[in-house]
């Protein structure tokens, strides 16, 4: 299972969840951020993904790795969130001033801050979701085309086509142009 230890019945659900959060928490957070484009909301989405994961552990069928299973849960939950009324109609927290009284920074905030500093990543965030998600899964999460297709529940040729179009749009963006989505 791709270096993951299998869940044995002696291991509690809490222990397994803790292990999954340690191994894949950064990945879940990065994916959530690509959808929410807001640090605090991405953290909330990641937390909700792990809550859903916890409730679904008993039904995990081991047809894939835990990592692939978490990708699918994350992508599906984030897509639902983006389609939700609250996402489309509420003021993003990034518009409001950030609190400066928080002491220290946790690992999740550090990961997001590192991603925010990446210029190309900022350009990726300007892509529509269908292009953004394939770029993130393929280039940032190092999934194969077939794995991306499995996570997104689409054809491998669709993934290849979206990757090609995403690269074209990114090239245009990096060169200073604007993109018009289909």
Automatic annotation (TrEMBL):
Residues 20-84 form the RNA polymerase sigma-70 region domain. Residues 124-170 form the RNA polymerase sigma factor 70 region 4 type domain. Keywords: Sigma factor, Transcription, Transcription regulation. One of its GO terms (molecular function) is DNA binding. GO terms for biological process: DNA-templated transcription initiation. It comes from the Bacteria. Belongs to the sigma-70 factor family. ECF subfamily. PANTHER family: RNA POLYMERASE ECF-TYPE SIGMA FACTO (PTHR43133), RNA POLYMERASE SIGMA FACTOR SIGV (PTHR43133:SF60). NCBIfam families: PRK09415.1, sigma70-ECF. This is RNA polymerase subunit sigma. It comes from Pontibacillus chungwhensis BH030062. The lineage of its organism: Bacteria, Bacillati, Bacillota, Bacilli, Bacillales.
């Amino acid at each position: 299972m791709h270096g993951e230890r299998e869940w044995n019945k002696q291991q509690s659900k809490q222990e397994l969840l803790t292990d999954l959060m340690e191994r894949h928490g950064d990945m879940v957070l990065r994916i959530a951020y690509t959808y929410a484009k807001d640090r605090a909301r991405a953290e909330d989405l990641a937390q909700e993904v792990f809550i859903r994961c916890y409730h679904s552990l008993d039904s995990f069928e081991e047809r894939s790795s835990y990592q692939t299973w978490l990708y699918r849960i994350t992508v599906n939950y984030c897509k639902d969130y983006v389609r939700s009324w609250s996402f489309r109609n509420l003021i993003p927290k990034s518009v409001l001033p950030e609190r400066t009284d928080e002491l220290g920074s946790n690992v999740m905030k550090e990961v997001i801050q590192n991603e925010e500093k990446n210029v190309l990543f900022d350009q990726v965030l300007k892509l529509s979701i269908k292009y953004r998600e394939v770029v993130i899964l393929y280039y940032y999460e190092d999934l194969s085309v077939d794995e991306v297709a499995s996570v997104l529940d689409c054809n491998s040729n669709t993934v290849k086509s979206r990757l090609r179009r995403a690269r074209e749009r990114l090239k245009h963006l990096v060169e200073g142009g604007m993109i018009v989505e289909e």
